[in-house]
Amino acid sequence: MAELPKGLTLNTISCGTVKIIELLGSGGQGAVYRVNYNGQEKALKWYHASYLKSMDKSEKQTNRKKFYENLKHNIQKGAPDKAFLWPQDLTEESNGSFGYIMDLRPGEYKELTDFLMLKVRFTSNITMINAAINIIQGFYMLHNDGYSYQDLNNGGFFINPKTGSVLICDNDNVAGQGINFGISGKQRYMAPEVVLGGTPDKYSDRFSLAVILFRMLFMEHPLEGKYSTPPCMIPEFERRFYGSDPVFIFDPKDKRNEASPNMQRNAYRLWPMFPEYIRELFTITFSKDTPPEKRPIEKKWLDAFIRLRGETVLCGKCHEENFIDIGKTNKCCSCGNVIECSSILKFKKYSVPIYSGAILSAVQTGDTQNLMGIYGCVISNPKNAKMTAIKNTSEFVWNVLTPSGKAVQVKQNELVPAINGLKITIGGNEGIIENI
Amino acid sequence: MALHDDLVKQKRKKMTLFYVVDTSGSMMIDSRIGKVNSAIENVMNKLSEISDNNEDAEINIAILEFSTGARWVTPTPVSPSEYTHTELKAGGVTDLGAACKALEEKLHRDNGFLDTSSGAYPPVILLMSDGEPNDNWEKPLSHLKHNGWFERAIKIAFAIADESSYDVLAEFVGTKEAIIQVDDMQMLEKFIERASEITSEFQSRSKSSEDADKSTEDTSAELVKKIKKEVRDETNAPTPDGIIDSHPEQGMKEASPVDDNSSAWDDLLNKFS
Ligand SMILES: Nc1ncnc2c1ncn2[C@@H]1O[C@H](COP(=O)(O)OP(=O)(O)O)[C@@H](O)[C@H]1O
Ligand SMILES: [Zn+2]
């Protein structure tokens, strides 16, 4: 792990030059340096020669040459989504090693591990859901491009706690269908079939992705309960509790590992606060009866989290953020106040509850490309909470048609009263307010 | 947001790192004991950092010294951030048997050092010695070897200066490949520090398909290779361990697979009393 000296210059395959500025940190597979790359500050991941050497010895047919070629190929194809800190250029081999260039991670992004250990907190539930949406979208795009990530674990995710923006690092094992460079993954994040010796693929990615999301939302591990906590976690037990006989702590049928209010305090308390359609995705993914190919696909997760974000309101009494289930009686998770939502703004696929604090996101209107865009929000009259209105916070002009047939244009920061039958057209997508 | 108010820290499994230190009179030579003292003192910061950033395991340390008899320096395991090191002093003979006995007593859940209410990982035991034992060590060691925690612990021995204790140390750790021979006292500190760090971190790294089903001895041997390599790279010196060349490919033992439906599970669980 001899450190690369400051000022050392390396050449890249696309005729760029890399000059070492300083060491940022070192991990299991390599070290990361701040470098000057063609006049810009970037990060260089430089592999430990021993890590590459271990690939040569690998029994599998793959080796460092293929690893190198794969990185090159991924660089040429480009990042599947903006969430990835994707390799941008590759150095030539020097002294038995090589490295790749990527963007520097801005300081406001914090390690997922810090969230899991309560060192960093999201500023709101919406921000947390945004982070989930960004992570899911990243893997949706990655898998759509034919890749699998293969080593999904807490160490690869960096999140901005104020916005929910996500950066996914360690993209060097990302490879096309059927390609693997010997990596299995990290214990507690690997899918059961990988724990048992299988090769990671997009299906196992989906399991690991669900572990990441579960831990972020419920602050506990989905497979760790009384049953799976032996006095000493030796490899045989790891194989069993994460591989051959894993039991979800909220498995509806198999209660051996059931969450308890003492041991899994966070999950025990939080699980019932989330709506059924979210819980179901976890239940299916972590059920032993679900074969890898039947795990919910990213699109399903994405739809669910977009709905969850859209159905988050502020309690009329204590102003606490609550996930409500439209059409059901909901009680505030903080003060117990009954949150009654009697109408919705209905678009083709999603509905916005007409209840204060609800946001109208771009995706809900049908603008599927704009995952983070917010076009409006629901507010209530401070003098009369029963009177609600939708505020246009977007730059577009909304075309509103009243129930009596009158057309009105609503500009930024203007309000639309929530009247049954009223139609709002935003960017070509029409929504209608309906009583439920 | 009520949802995330009242969150409690997730319970982590405990991993206890045992230092078993020979403080016999000969440890005074070349200030061997001084090097051990400063290594332990210096590595605590790093260990507390590793523990703080590790969402898999919480690291505790325990120190046992042995010379004429054995004595626990830490009455119970402590977190590295709370530990204040008092200099270990050398003097007396090498009662390894007493150390084995003391260790065996504490490698238990009840009345022992291994609190496992939220689970534990196998402990790590770092044994440092510079000479052949004087007492009757065979029996206490053989008794210790029947302890399930000991059996599954990562065990690494440091043979300090003297080669005469090599066989005894191998007997303790289970394989010669888990011994680090240190002849140059300038290197002792580095070896102890790296060993402490690498063994504390290894639970939480990504695994390759090659890592599956390794026996405890092979894992220890693998870690020793890594420790040697890192120290070598750091000092850019040729390998300080000229005596034993590791050939981990030879004699690889597979961890025995356990049949899912057998009573073997209970046997396995009962090992960790
Ligand atoms: N693009 C980047 N920008 C800034 N810091 C980075 C970047 N990538 C990695 N690092 C930091 O460099 C260190 C080593 O990274 P890495 O080799 O990926 O380690 P690990 O094996 O622990 O994931 C870590 O502290 C990480 O936070
Ligand atoms: Zn309330």
**Number of helical elements of chain B:** 8
Widest β-sheet, arrangement of strands of chain A:
1-2-3-4-6-5
Strand order of the largest sheet of chain B: 3-2-1-4-5-6
Q: Name the structural class of chain B.
A: alpha/beta
Number of helices of chain A: 11
What radius of gyration of chain A results from the CA coordinates?
A: 24 Å
Q: Describe the largest sheet of chain B.
A: 6 strands, mixed
Helix content of chain B: 25-40%
Number of strands of chain B: 7
Helix content of chain A: 25-40%
Overall form of chain A: globular
**Biggest β-sheet of chain A: count, sense, barrel?**
6 strands, antiparallel
Measured by DSSP, the beta-strand proportion of chain A falls in 25-35%
The end-to-end span of chain A amounts to 65 Å
Secondary-structure element string of chain B? EHEEHEHHEHEHEHH
The coarse overall form of chain B would be globular
Can you describe what's shown?
The complex is a heterodimer of chains A (about 425) and B (about 270). Chain A is an alpha+beta fold and about 425 residues long. Chain A has helices at about 50-55, 65-75, 110-115, 125-145, 190-195, 200-220, 235-245, 265-270, 275-285, 300-310, 360-365; strands at about 10, 15-25, 30-35, 40-45, 90, 100, 110, 145-150, 155-160, 165-170, 175, 185, 310-315, 320-325, 330, 340, 345, 350-355, 360, 375-380, 385-390, 400, 405-410, 415, 425, 430-435. In chain A, the strands form seven sheets. Chain A has a six-stranded antiparallel beta sheet with strand order 1-2-3-4-6-5. Chain B has about 270 residues and is α/β, with parallel strands linked by helices. Chain B is about 35% helix and about 15% strand. Chain B contains eight helices and seven strands. A six-stranded mixed beta sheet of chain B has the order 3-2-1-4-5-6, sandwiched between helices. In chain B, strand 2 (about 55-65) and strand 3 form a beta hairpin. Chain B is globular and about 60 Å long. In chain B, about 45% of the residues are buried. At the A-B interface, strand 12, helix 7 and helix 8 of A face helix 4, strand 7, helix 7 and helix 8 of B. Adenosine-5'-diphosphate binds near residues 32, 85, 169 and 170 of chain A. The site of zinc ion has 8 residues of chain A, from loops.
